[in-house]
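Bumping with the actual sequence this time:
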Amino acid sequence: MKNIDTLSSIEGRTLLMSIYKELRYEKQLSSLATLFQCWRICTNEREIFKFSKQEVTIVHPLGFFSGTALWMEEVVNRFYFSTINSFVYFGAAILLVLIGIRRFSDSVSDNLVIFGVAFEALMLMFMFVVMLFTPNEEIINNAANKENEAINEIVTEIGEIGRDFAAAVVQLEEMGLTLQDLIKQQKETLNLINKIAETTAEAVAPNPQMIETMEITNKALAGFSKTVCELHEAAEKLKREEIELAVKREVERILLDRFTKT
């Protein structure tokens, strides 16, 4: 809950005006009820939240005289001056009518004219009192100007922060584009490295088709070697058979020669 030292401060006066508008226009209280509630708040009340949605506590109430003076300044003069001025003009109009009729006719008594003069004098005195408590607008305007200056400074700072943020966003976008280019270049480099690795692997490890061809060739060479060995064995066998046949023929010839000599 917020604490305010006194309603006579600038913050307190602003709070009082907001309370009046809330009571009069939001809660739809009558003018007399609104005036009475505002007078109580100005003079004695500490806990404003009893009458308004404002969660505020007044630390030092103003009392009867100071509170009434503040009430005259910030409520009666500020919100009812035009109404009082209208009553003054209304009393003046009645007085003029009564004096005019009294001038040309005896139907208006002297007491009625005196009553009109007294009413107009009373209205003028009341207007004098109300105007005597005219609020000092310069104080509130200066406070409002200071608040506006503070708000403008905050807005300017926010604008500068927004501009810096926009520049940072642009730089981040540029960095993002640069990173994308770097990633693209890195991908291209990786593709080149993969191709080089594949080429190196093919150079170090033979191609599977080449290995299959070499296996087939080895099998063919093994078969050819086996065939050559078989041919060699067959040739040796034929050679032995021819030698045996030649020996047999020579033995037969020798034996025949011996038999023929005997």
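The tokens above came from a reply further down the thread. The chain is about 85% helix and 0% strand.
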